[in-house]
Each structure stands twice: as structure tokens, then as C-alpha cells.
Amino acid sequence: MQAVQLSEEGTSVPFYLSQGDECEIFRAAYNNQMPLLLKGPTGCGKTRFVAHMAASLGRPLYTVACHDDLSAADLIGRFLLKGGETEWVDGPLTRAVREGAICYLDEVVEARKDVAVVLHPLTDDRRMLPIERTGEVLEAGPQFMLVASYNPGYQNILKSLKPSTRQRFLAVDFDFPAAAQEVEIVVAESGLGTDRVAPLVRLAGKLRALKGQDLEEGVSTRLVVYCASLIQGGMPIPRAVEAALIEPLSDDADIKQGLRDLVATVY
Ligand code: ADP
């Protein structure tokens, strides 16, 4: 289930509970034609935020989940064989520039290095996208916006954004919502009542406190929503907690037992 909100114009937009002034920053970036970088752990609401803002601004959204094999050609486009003829097919970035859409590059540091080369002329005041293969040079209109995200928690020396790339973006730091807000989000997303969501969020807080000691990454709001949805669907709490909050976090039997001991302090 995905809750919706109404925009100022009365159209429905994906539900997003703001944590601070990130919606204002996004609007300012859009109005000033500046790219935006969202930093934060997985499952804390970055993708939902972008979907919410794109719908609020009435712009189409192209989301690209970046991976280590994603190249500039995947973003820009390529010639494909169609019925014996070669035909140029725009990639999502090119389409976004042509249509004046928002292009969201999720986990941008995962992408191949040649992606940065493409982003540079697009993220400074030139706002240009050269398409070498066709000889075209597209100029981005005022409605085009580039948004990228990355998870500083995963950073290593090989995979970090170069200063020459990151200093072209405005940036907003994301984290897991405060407990009261997380309860509100999980209730809206799962339909489970506040009194049953509150202990789950308390448990998530305790599990997050283990980050760095036993766990590489704290439990995400996404997993708390999954857990609440399973319980709302009728699954017994211990089974839902095991499937959504224990097993996804670790493969190590001792660590999982430690997590179960923590669960016992809440339920
Ligand atoms: P990320 O992109 O940071 O990995 P997502 O945006 O996919 O995370 O968030 C995961 C899920 O958590 C969303 O699908 C939504 O259910 C929920 N969520 C997290 N934060 C919020 C929020 N502030 N408002 C509404 N839903 C949220």
C-alpha cells in the first residue's frame, strides 16, 4: 500500500513526511537550475522524497538505479538494430533533458567512471548534454533537474565521489526519521495502528544502535514498513520481526541471536 498526499494544485502525490527543510531546498534547487545530491543510508526515504517532489512540481521522473556496470551510454542512449536498420534510442538522461524532466541517479557512485564525464557539462552553468554518437548537443531547459544519491556509509577509497563532481551539486544529508515521525510514516504506509507500530519503531532504534559494532548498516525505515505490513496482513509478530528485521540484517548466527535477544527486550 502506498499512501498519497494532495499537492497545492489538488493532484495526488506520493506520501512523504518531511524531516526538515529538504522540500524547500529541493524547490530552491529546481528554481535555480541547480543539481542536488542526497546523502544518506539505504531505505531512509530518499527515493520517496524525489518521487514526492517530482509529482509536486508536476515534472516527469526518470529514476536510474546505478550499478557498477552502468556506463555513460546507458544514460545517454545508443544505436539499436531494429528490423535491419540501426536506430538511435535515447537513454533516460537524454529523455529527461529533452522533456524537461527530473532525472534521479540512485547510488551514483556505483556507476562507471565515464558517467562523471557526462554529468560535468550538465551540472555546471553550461547545462549541456553532448551526444557524441549522433553529434547532437542538447541544452537543458529550466525544467530539467538532475538529482543523485549516495550512501556515505558504504564509501571506500575506490568508490567515492570526486570533489570535482560533488562540488557541482547542492547537497542534503538524510538520516532515519525521528521516532515520532517514523511511527507516523509506518502507520501511513502499512495501515497498522499507532499502538502496534510504536514498539516496532522502538525496536528499530535499538537495532540501529548496533550499527558499527555488529551491523554494517542500521535497519531501514523500508524494513520497518515491511514488518508492519506483514503484521497488518495477519502474520504473528515474532514471524514478521524475524523475516523483516532479523534475517535481512545478518547471515551470522551469533549476531542474529543477539538481535533476537534485543527483540525480547521490546516484546
Ligand atoms: P532510499 O531511497 O533512501 O533507499 P526509500 O525512499 O525507498 O529509501 O524509502 C523506503 C520506504 O520507506 C519508502 O517506500 C516509504 O515506505 C518509507 N519512507 C521512508 N521515509 C519516508 C518519509 N519521510 N515519508 C514517507 N515514507 C517514507
UniProtKB/TrEMBL annotation:
Boundaries of every CbbQ/NirQ/NorQ C-terminal domain copy: 182-265
Classification via Gene3D superfamilies: P-loop containing nucleotide triphosphate hydrolases
InterPro entries given in the database record: ATPase_dyneun-rel_AAA (IPR011704), CbbQ/NirQ/NorQ/GpvN (IPR050764), CbbQ_C (IPR013615), P-loop_NTPase (IPR027417)
UniProt keyword annotation of Transferase present: no
Residue ranges annotated for the ATPase dynein-related AAA domain, each copy included: 35-169
A GO MF label: ATP hydrolysis activity
Domain of life: Bacteria
Pfam families on file: AAA_5, CbbQ_C
Keyword field: ATP-binding, Nucleotide-binding
Family in the record: Belongs to the CbbQ/NirQ/NorQ/GpvN family.
Protein name listed in UniProt: ATPase AAA
